[in-house]
Design a protein that fits this description.
Low-confidence stretches: none
Strand content: 15-25%
Order of helices and strands: EHEHEH
Distance between the termini: 18 Å
Number of helices: 3
Number of strands: 3
Strand order of the largest sheet: 1-2-3
Oligomer: single chain
Largest sheet: 3 strands, parallel
Mean pLDDT: 80
Shape: globular
Length: 75
């Protein structure tokens, strides 16, 4: 399983998307997940995250970890 923490306003996060897409093609999508973490109040909004997912053609499941609960649980 690959867990990628990202934010849609981060240029580094956007630069990794082509590499993630290659990995998605090589392995089943069911083993994928990513969590969107909040850096600003706009990034906490699920609708904004959904729009970014569509804009960047992200196909794997995405979690809105707006309060860093998943992030914190993984220490």
């Amino acid at each position: 399983m690959l867990l990628d923490f990202w934010t849609y306003c981060c240029i580094n996060c956007m630069h990794i998307l082509p590499e993630l897409h290659k990995l998605e093609q090589a392995w089943p999508i069911t083993s994928w997940s990513s969590a969107s973490i909040r850096r600003s109040s706009a990034e906490q909004d699920t609708q904004n995250i959904r729009a970014a997912i569509q804009r960047y053609k992200i196909e794997h499941p995405v979690i809105n970890d707006s309060h860093h609960e998943l992030w914190n649980s993984l220490a």
